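Reply to thread "Modeling small-molecule complexes from scratch"

Following up on the discussion above, here's a worked example others can learn from. I took a protein sequence and the SMILES for adenosine-5'-triphosphate and predicted the complex. Inputs first:
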Amino acid sequence: MGRKKTRGRFIALEGADGTGKSTQALLLADFLKHFGIEAKITREPNNPAILKLIETCTSKEGACLLFAADRASHSQKIEALLEEGFWVISDRFTDSSLAYQAGGWEMKLGEVEKVNAFATPLKPDLTLIFSCTPSRAAKRMRRRGNESSFDQNFPLQRKVGNEYRLLARRGGGRKIMDASAEARKVGARVREEVKRKWKLQTR
Ligand SMILES: Nc1ncnc2c1ncn2[C@@H]1O[C@H](COP(=O)(O)OP(=O)(O)OP(=O)(O)O)[C@@H](O)[C@H]1O
Ligand SMILES: [Mg+2]
């Protein structure tokens, strides 16, 4: 009988639009290889069919439920990868709903939490929340070349950022990362956090 694999670790990358989550996901997965760790990157919204429904949904409550429905099946995929021993880096997870629906859309935080607790019991071992000003994030997205009017909604992005900071104060493995520096520097901070948390040693 094969030896049971050690369960992988689950890291969520969070932050308002354009703060550098996807960039840092790639850098972190690459970095983990030095420790013999194979990381899988996954993202939300996860299911393209649900994303389509979200985009056409005209009710905040409906969209909130759809995000949670997407997360319910996404969590099963993450759980399976963790069981197999992979580390999982998720580009957004539950905190995105708390920050956007409660913070950005001003829905009741307790209700958004309840919906999400019903969708999945899965919680990240570590959540890194990238934080920079909306104008800096917008500049980056302009350079990336596919910003939408949603991305450019500064008041919303500001409310989202504030909610993330409130969430971080609750602890639960959350850490605010200053994302205003260049990507390489932010990456170095991410590596330090991860190395320290799991006392990683190069092989
Ligand atoms: N620290 C940084 N400094 C400058 N540019 C950056 C930095 N991090 C990322 N970028 C660039 O800014 C753009 C946005 O970054 P990225 O796509 O990683 O953000 P994101 O948080 O994943 O955005 P979204 O919320 O839209 O998914 C990209 O073009 C990326 O190359
Ligand atoms: Mg992204």
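What I'd highlight from this example: The two ends are 26 Å apart (CA to CA). The mean pLDDT is 94. Questions welcome below.
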